[in-house]
């Protein structure tokens, strides 16, 4: 039997949906009580998979935007994208974060990024690109659910969005098309950085849940695509 | 000229009062200057929009005026454009005018001023310009923020092939800014201290998301996206049609996509009704037909985008463009073997307008019938002349009957007609074999073609009618798809009728007649030559009443059984060409031509045989040389079959090579073989001659020969020559003498060999060597291990055998007495020296070797293991000979005398063999079991006996078993 790309997308979507539903099924949470270890591992695996998936999607989308956005050495200073949750933090700050804060920041960041990504999907002019973006959004939704599952397993409450702070995507020329392209560029780049940071976070959390925990040396910085 | 001067003067005089009147109307000279001039900027369109009024115009006054406009950039003094704008001005009218700037307006401050002049024909010249208005400033930079770098124009739409000017404003003059079109560094022109402009010529379409132009200094890059549109094409193939007279559909080919996310708009405008509709698709538009019975439509299709507007028009008559929807529910009804009624329905058009429908009937993919039927709602048509049991396809399409424009789409339906009885008799032929005088007929028939079967053939009926017995009918049913059957008949005349049956009924019968007697088979066979088309043949009719002719043959005569083929020919035919795809070159085909009588009886007319193409023989005969003499030999190849060759054998070539010389014999001709060797060749032109005598040969010479057949296509393959050596002239004499001699010698040798033992015994018998006697080992082990020769003392005789000499002079000391009539001189006599059990009977005959030469008391110590000699032992052959009384008597009478009579030294020794028995070695132990024949033998002492006493042949008076014992062969048995 041939497995086409579309089939693998479908399977991944299925996986993500299942992961999303995991915390909602009480029976699964009670049986055996394996602890948060397996769900952290699954979240870590999904993060790594999304990193791989984004690498392909970003290449396609940046080519769609055209030069200079698809050039490998294009690394402009960040400006005007303050609305995007920033993944890069000072190392000391990152070290000072506790598990709850880390997970909360991850959850909030992906909630925002997912919203912006859906806006990107609406803008895309080609059907193929729209399909790829839609699949990635489904996967990201799965990651969000997975993080929520980990938080539930550890007994942390999900962050409640403050009224009026929901990220919104405003269609139309909020600013020039060039800046819009720049925003898209930064969105993909920020997403990449967040996925990288999340992988580190979940790896650290995973080791912590399996004592004796080993020290994690983490150096956070933005990476190019 | 004078007249012209007068007229000019008169004209001027006439104008003077008019000027006076005008002055009265306009009163004073007009101070018509543009006032309230304002300038605004439209950044999206890069336009300066001017707005002003002209004061001092009287009420209802309407004047044509010219406005001269000047535009400066950066400084008022730098005028970059001057132009005129003419218009008719009324009182208090606000005038508007726009100017499109190549340079984005945000990059420079612009200044505008204007003046005006009356340009009305009612105002006489000279006319004067008014004063310039004051400079009005248009500054778009006021609205910019505090970013260090700006690039303009923002998100501009341009058409492919046009030129674009892009500029940037840098607030930081120290910053080194580079600008790129996509990824190509671009160089511009500095317009001001902080403004640079870039002229991009003939810009091309790259992608839907636009072409990127960006500049980058130390900070964040700033750029613009140029959305390049391809040139909008004029719609092509614009046409309209209606399917139901209610809705019109206009279609067109929009051409290439402009490449922008914003698609061009298409609007359909109808000029008679003055209605228009915005099309939802870029290649199709629907138009609702109104109920006011408008027939004519003048449609204009307008395609429009940001840059262009394209339009195309057609004049359309509604009823000339009716394209009906495809009919539906096409079904066959009342399908018989030859007829079918097709029914279908159509969608109504307008008020049930008539439709012209075309019904097509297809068989095997080809249109075989086509009918046009005019209908309104329901269609029905009877298709006739159909073939039974045939699959057809019916398809129908319709067009508007009032004015044909276009057929609707086709719909189709398959159906199969019913079966009917086969329409043609099967083609039948027969093969008659006479077995024991009775004809055995094999009937063959060819399957009917599909055109004639009219259904699936289920079986064939064979009716055998005996013409000599009126009521005799035999019916055979042969299930399909068999194509032959065998019938055994009597010696009567028969008619055989064959019919093919399908589910409906039988076909017409095919009849063959069979005579109960063999016909004339002795017809001479003629030869025919095949051609590319087959075998052409002709024949001579024998009777005038022939109803036809049949040519039969086998497609593969080399394969058995023969696949009989035949061809029917009409009564007037006297020739045909038999062709078959199975015919092959080099194969002999036999054809038989039959004449069919009026009674359907077949008479053999001619036989033909031939090859499609003759080939050279594929192999040579096996030639056997015989009758070899010193001067001749005969070659023979009688087993070579000429009938099964690849061509008609016309004769044979006999090749002969001789080492004697190069001269050929008479009748031979010299020829050169393919290997360039020279030999003699003899041609036999009679294919039936299969022997050849080589004559006039030299004795004791080597000849090589080779025989090959030849056909019209050539001779057989070159094989190896066989060698024959002619014998010497006298060799046969030698053979007649030497061979019998050799035979005799061989017989003698064989006889000698077979009788060698006998000769040996007769001529040179074996001389025993006492040093090698086997008894020594027995003696050694018992008493003296160092003994090398047997002494008399070492032996203990336990029996004595008396050999009776024929002269009767020898008296043998033996315990056996036997009458001459009982012994016949062939058996030895034995005497047991030990008491024996009277009733003992051994298991079988036993031989006891005894030394008859010595008589010692010690002999009683010996133990003879053989069974005791008793008169009650009939199984022992010696039993009757060993009566104790006879033996003792004989011994007493003869023994002493005989010893005294033998002179020492003269006597030849006669030895009696002896054999030691391992069982008998234990003398002390009595026999517990009857000894086995081999085991009961025991060595007995032996003594030399004068040969004269033993050697004479036995006579009737001789004593017991004397000769038998002298035979060594007997002893060793």
From TrEMBL, chain A:
GO BP field: cell surface receptor signaling pathway via JAK-STAT; positive regulation of B cell proliferation
Domain of life: Eukaryota
GO cellular component, one term: extracellular space
UniProt xrefs under InterPro entries: 4_helix_cytokine-like_core, PRF/CT
Compartments it resides in: Secreted
GO molecular function: cytokine activity
Keywords attached to this entry: Cytokine, Secreted, Signal
One Pfam family from the record: PRF
SUPFAM superfamilies linked: 4-helical cytokines
Keyword Transferase in annotation: no
Signal peptide from the UniProt entry: 1-27
Family affiliation: Belongs to the IL-6 superfamily.
Protein name per the record: Cardiotrophin-like cytokine factor 1
Organism: Odocoileus virginianus
Highest classification ranks of the organism: Eukaryota, Metazoa, Chordata, Craniata, Vertebrata
From TrEMBL, chain B:
Stated name of the protein: Oncostatin-M-specific receptor subunit beta isoform X2
Low complexity composition-biased segments: 956-967
Sample GO molecular function, one term: cytokine receptor activity
Keywords: Disulfide bond, Glycoprotein, Membrane, Receptor, Repeat, Signal, Transmembrane, Transmembrane helix
Chain segments carrying region Disordered: 947-973
Gene: OSMR
Biological process, per Gene Ontology: oncostatin-M-mediated signaling pathway
Pfam families with a match to the protein in the record: fn3, LIF-R_Ig-like, LIFR_D2, LIFR_D4
Signal sequence, renumbered to the chain: 1-27
Subcellular location: Membrane
Top-level lineage group: Eukaryota
GO cellular component: plasma membrane
Protein family: Belongs to the type I cytokine receptor family. Type 2 subfamily.
Chief location bin: membrane
Residue span, Fibronectin type-III domain: 326-420, 425-521, 617-729
Family matches, as SMART domains: FN3 (SM00060)
Transmembrane segments: 733-754
InterPro entries (alphabetical): FN3_dom, FN3_sf, Hematopoietin_rcpt_Gp130_CS, Ig-like_fold, LIF-R-like_Ig-like, LIFR_D2, Type1_Cytokine_Rcpt_Type2
Membrane-topology annotation of the record: Single-pass type I membrane protein
The keyword Mitochondrion is assigned to this record: no
Alphabetical list of SUPFAM superfamilies matching this protein: Fibronectin type III
């Amino acid at each position: 039997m041939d497995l086409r790309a579309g089939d693998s997308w479908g399977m991944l979507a299925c996986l993500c949906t299942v992961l999303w539903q995991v915390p909602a099924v009480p029976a699964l949470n009670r049986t055996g009580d394996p602890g948060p270890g397996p769900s952290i591992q699954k979240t870590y695996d999904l993060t790594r998979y999304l990193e791989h998936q984004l690498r392909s999607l970003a290449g396609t989308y940046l080519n769609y935007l055209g030069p200079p956005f698809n050039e490998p050495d294009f690394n402009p200073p960040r400006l005007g994208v303050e609305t995007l949750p920033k993944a890069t933090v000072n190392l000391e700050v990152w070290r000072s974060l506790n598990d709850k804060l880390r997970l909360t920041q991850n959850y909030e960041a992906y909630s925002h990024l997912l919203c912006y990504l859906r806006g990107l999907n609406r803008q895309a002019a080609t059907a193929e690109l729209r399909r790829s973006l839609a699949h990635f959004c489904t996967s990201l939704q799965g990651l969000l659910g997975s993080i929520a599952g980990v938080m539930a397993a550890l007994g942390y409450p999900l962050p409640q969005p403050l009224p009026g702070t929901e990220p919104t995507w405003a269609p139309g020329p909020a600013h020039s098309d060039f800046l819009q392209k720049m925003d898209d560029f930064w969105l993909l780049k920020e997403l990449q950085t967040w996925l990288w940071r999340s992988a580190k976070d979940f790896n650290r959390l995973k080791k912590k849940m399996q004592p004796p925990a080993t020290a994690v040396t983490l150096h956070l910085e933005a990476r190019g695509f | 000229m004078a007249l012209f001067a007068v007229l000019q003067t008169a004209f001027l005089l006439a104008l003077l009062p008019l000027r006076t009147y005008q002055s009265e109307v306009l009163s004073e000279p007009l101070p018509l200057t543009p006032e309230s001039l304002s300038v605004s900027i439209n950044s999206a369109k890069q336009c300066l929009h001017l707005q002003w009024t002209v004061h001092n115009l009287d009420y209802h006054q309407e004047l044509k005026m010219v406005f001269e406009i000047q535009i400066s950039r950066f400084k008022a003094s730098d005028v970059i454009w001057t132009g005129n704008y003419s218009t008719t001005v009324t009182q208090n009218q606000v005038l508007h005018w726009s100017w499109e700037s190549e340079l984005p307006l945000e990059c420079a401050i612009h200044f505008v001023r204007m003046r005006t002049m009356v340009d009305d024909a009612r105002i006489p010249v000279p006319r004067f310009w008014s004063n310039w208005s004051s400079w009005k400033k248009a500054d778009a930079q006021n609205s910019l923020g505090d970013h260090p770098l700006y690039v303009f124009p923002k998100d501009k739409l341009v058409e492919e092939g046009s030129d674009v000017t892009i500029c940037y404003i840098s607030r930081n003059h120290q910053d080194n800014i580079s600008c790129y079109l996509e990824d190509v560094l671009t160089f511009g022109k500095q317009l001001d201290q902080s403004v640079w402009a870039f002229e991009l010529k003939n810009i091309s379409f790259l992608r839907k998301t636009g072409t990127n132009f960006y500049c980058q200094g130390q900070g964040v890059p700033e750029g613009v996206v140029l959305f390049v549109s391809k040139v909008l094409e004029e719609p092509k193939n614009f046409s309209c049609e209606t399917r139901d007279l209610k809705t019109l559909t206009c279609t067109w080919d929009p051409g290439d996509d402009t490449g922008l996310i914003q698609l061009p708009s298409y609007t359909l405008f109808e000029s008679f009704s003055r209605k228009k509709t915005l099309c939802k698709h870029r290649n199709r538009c629907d138009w609702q037909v109104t109920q006011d019975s408008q027939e004519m439509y003048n449609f204009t299709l307008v395609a429009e985008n940001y840059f262009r507007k394209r339009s195309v028009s057609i004049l359309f008559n509604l009823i000339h463009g009716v394209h009906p929807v495809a009919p539906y529910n096409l079904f066959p009804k009342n399908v018989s073997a030859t007829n079918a009624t097709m029914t279908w329905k159509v969608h109504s058009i307008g008020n049930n307008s008539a439709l012209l429908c075309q019904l097509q009937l297809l068989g095997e993919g080809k249109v075989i019938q086509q009918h046009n039927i005019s209908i309104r709602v329901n269609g029905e048509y009877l298709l006739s002349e159909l073939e039974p049991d045939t699959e057809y396809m019916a398809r129908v399409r319709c067009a508007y009957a009032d004015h044909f424009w276009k057929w609707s789409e086709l719909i189709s339906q398959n159906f199969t007609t019913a079966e009917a009885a086969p329409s043609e008799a099967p083609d039948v032929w027969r093969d008659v074999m006479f077995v024991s005088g009775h004809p055995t007929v094999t009937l063959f028939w060819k399957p009917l073609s599909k055109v004639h079967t009219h259904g699936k053939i289920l079986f064939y009926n064979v009716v055998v009618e005996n013409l000599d017995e009126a009521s005799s009918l035999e019916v055979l049913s042969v299930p399909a798809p068999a194509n032959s059957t065998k019938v055994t008949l009597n010696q009567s005349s028969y008619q055989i009728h064959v019919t093919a049956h399908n589910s409906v009924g039988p076909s017409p019968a095919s009849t063959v007649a069979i005579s109960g007697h063999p016909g004339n088979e002795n017809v001479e066979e003629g030869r025919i030559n095949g051609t590319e088309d087959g075998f052409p043949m002709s024949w001579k009719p024998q009777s005038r009443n022939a109803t036809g002719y049949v040519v039969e043959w086998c497609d593969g005569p080399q394969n058995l059984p023969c696949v009989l083929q035949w061809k029917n020919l009409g009564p007037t035919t006297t020739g045909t060409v038999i062709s078959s795809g199975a015919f092959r070159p080099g194969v002999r085909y036999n054809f038989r031509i039959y004449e069919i009588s009026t009674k359907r009886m077949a008479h053999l007319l001619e036989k033909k045989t031939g090859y499609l193409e003759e080939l050279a023989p594929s192999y040579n005969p096996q030639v056997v040389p015989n009758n070899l003499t010193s001067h001749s030999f005969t070659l023979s190849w009688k087993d070579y079959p000429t009938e099964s060759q690849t061509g008609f054998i016309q004769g044979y070539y006999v090749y002969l090579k001789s080492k004697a010389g190069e001269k050929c014999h008479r009748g031979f001709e010299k020829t050169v073989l393919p290997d360039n060797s020279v030999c003699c060749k003899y041609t036999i032109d009679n294919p039936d001659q299969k022997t050849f005598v080589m004559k006039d040969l030299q004795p004791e010479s080597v000849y090589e020969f080779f025989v090959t057949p030849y056909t019209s296509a050539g001779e057989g393959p070159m094989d190896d020559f066989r060698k024959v050596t002619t014998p010497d002239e006298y060799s046969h004499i030698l053979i007649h003498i030497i061979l019998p001699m050799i035979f005799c010698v061989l017989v003698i040798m064989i006889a000698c060999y077979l009788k060698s033992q006998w000769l040996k015994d007769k001529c040179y018998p074996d001389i025993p060597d006492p040093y090698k006697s086997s008894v020594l080992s027995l003696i050694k082990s018992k008493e003296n291990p160092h003994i090398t020769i047997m002494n008399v003392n070492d032996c203990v005789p336990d029996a004595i055998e008396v050999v009776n000499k024929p002269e009767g002079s020898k008296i043998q000391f033996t315990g056996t007495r036997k009458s001459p009539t009982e012994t016949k001189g062939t058996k030895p006599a034995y005497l047991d020296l030990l008491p024996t059990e009277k009733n003992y009977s051994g298991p079988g005959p036993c031989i006891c070797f005894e030394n008859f030469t010595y008589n010692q008391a010690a002999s009683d110590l010996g133990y003879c293991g053989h069974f005791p000699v008793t008169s009650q032992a009939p199984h022992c052959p010696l039993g009757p000979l060993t009566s104790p009384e006879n033996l003792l008597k004989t011994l007493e009478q003869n023994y002493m005398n005989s010893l005294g009579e033998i002179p020492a030294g003269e006597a030849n020794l006669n030895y009696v063999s002896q054999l030691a028995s391992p069982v008998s070695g234990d003398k002390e132990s009595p026999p517990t079991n009857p000894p086995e024949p081999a085991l009961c033998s025991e060595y007995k002492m032996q003594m030399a006996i004068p040969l004269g006493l033993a050697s004479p042949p036995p006579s009737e008076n001789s004593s017991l078993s004397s000769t038998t014992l002298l035979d060594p062969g007997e002893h060793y048995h």
